[in-house]
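Appendix B, example 12.
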Amino acid sequence: MKKLTLYILTILFLTCGCSKSNLNSDETFSQPNNQEITNQQISLNKEEPQPQEKGQKEELEENLHPIDKAERDCIAKNMTTAGMSNCSYIAMDEWFKEIDKYINLLKDVTSKDEYNNILEAQTQWKKYQEAEFEAVSILINKQGTIYQNILAGEECNLVKQRAHDVKSFYEYLIEE
């Protein structure tokens, strides 16, 4: 689609015969012509979503976890580097709460020994999480503030994944 747009624009440019030498000082481009070109470009670059795609978008929105929605909305309101990173760190704190919630729920559906194994696994995961945070922290030294957002996102995604894993484990155990 981009190639087609570029091709059309190139043809328009080459065929219009508009160069500085061809324009009188009194001539200007009329607004309607510029508007037509703009509308053509927009219609070429912007495809209307199909009804099926709209349904898929609504379904994705419906399935989006409330923490993800809150993070997305927070980022939309805080478009600075620090603001966006802060939103990801707030979300990460919420994912930690989810982990704690499901670890505590697992206590009710497992034996004492099984629960102790789960707690040991969580302790080992915390060590892994700390090592991963240390490993990705090298991003903070890279040139450009965008890496602060990438770092926050990477850390948040790691915790989010653990929250999903613990929740899934709990759901498998209560499923009967």
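Residues 1-49 have pLDDT under 50 and may be disordered. The longest helix spans residues 81-109.
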